[in-house]
Amino acid sequence: MLDNIEGTARYIKNRIGDFEPEVGIILGTGLGGLVKEIEVEKQLMYSNIPDFPISTLEFHSGKLIFGTLAGKKVVAMQGRLHYYEGYNMQQITFPVRVMKYLGIKTLYVSNASGSLNPEFKKGDLMIIEDHINLQPQNPLVGRNYEELGPRFPDMSEPYRHDMIEKGLSIAQKNNITCHKGVYVAVTGPNLETRAEYKYLRIIGGDAVGMSTVPEVIVANHMGIPVFAISVLTDEGFPEVLKPITLEEIIAIAQEAEPKMTQILKELIAGN
């Protein structure tokens, strides 16, 4: 794995020249519009990058975007990878490993998720303060490379507290409804049953989704500070649960995206 990471990073560096990103960004379902705010210098298709997994979802672009956002050099994944696509956890998190080797110092992650907390409504934002991992694999299983991080990384602060507070302050200043809460990661790709939504709420979840946690674990393993934010696109309240389609989820994510973009831009500018 280490050889693959180094080889992929070398390939990318040969194509972006002396551009060295300090910020990594992962854009979730329906949230690719942040790219419009980036002064783009280079774009690389995942399919052209050696050993880089390819997003199989029609609504994920599958591009690495290099440019400037809020005065900072960034690399953005426009299209992330999921366990339910058939990839293993090492493949899903491979891009984060590569971004570290490209020079990033901080990782910003976004996703679309379902609300479990009756006080959090669809269209709201939620900054992730902690998570519960219910996915069946961990990206750190297998041989550990000390060059990447320790065998047993600490996870007492997977999401940086100071960045969470800054994010909440930015939201308040801009009159954006934004909560903080616990994100539960599940396998998917089906949405949850009534009983599952109830269970996830009982164990402490405020939102549920099918991504993010593997990337966050690997970022922590490599000592990269993380900020993560969810757009709440549906409501998993068992008593009033209604069917929802992917098209509705994407539409709600895109409608709420400008608010998320505002928080991310100001947070990146100030860090």
UniProtKB/TrEMBL annotation:
<comment type="pathway">
    <text>Purine metabolism; purine nucleoside salvage.</text>
</comment>
<dbReference type="GO" id="GO:0004731">
    <property type="term" value="F:purine-nucleoside phosphorylase activity"/>
</dbReference>
<dbReference type="InterPro" id="IPR035994">
    <property type="entry name" value="Nucleoside_phosphorylase_sf"/>
</dbReference>
<keyword id="KW-0328">Glycosyltransferase</keyword>
<comment type="function">
    <text>The purine nucleoside phosphorylases catalyze the phosphorolytic breakdown of the N-glycosidic bond in the beta-(deoxy)ribonucleoside molecules, with the formation of the corresponding free purine bases and pentose-1-phosphate.</text>
</comment>
<keyword id="KW-0597">Phosphoprotein</keyword>
<protein>
    <recommendedName>
        <fullName>Purine nucleoside phosphorylase</fullName>
        <ecNumber>2.4.2.1</ecNumber>
    </recommendedName>
</protein>
<dbReference type="Pfam" id="PF01048">
    <property type="entry name" value="PNP_UDP_1"/>
</dbReference>
<dbReference type="InterPro" id="IPR011270">
    <property type="entry name" value="Pur_Nuc_Pase_Ino/Guo-sp"/>
</dbReference>
<dbReference type="InterPro" id="IPR011268">
    <property type="entry name" value="Purine_phosphorylase"/>
</dbReference>
<feature type="domain" description="Nucleoside phosphorylase">
    <location>
        <begin position="23"/>
        <end position="269"/>
    </location>
</feature>
<keyword id="KW-0808">Transferase</keyword>
<comment type="similarity">
    <text>Belongs to the PNP/MTAP phosphorylase family.</text>
</comment>
<dbReference type="GO" id="GO:0009116">
    <property type="term" value="P:nucleoside metabolic process"/>
</dbReference>
<dbReference type="InterPro" id="IPR000845">
    <property type="entry name" value="Nucleoside_phosphorylase_d"/>
</dbReference>
<dbReference type="GO" id="GO:0005737">
    <property type="term" value="C:cytoplasm"/>
</dbReference>
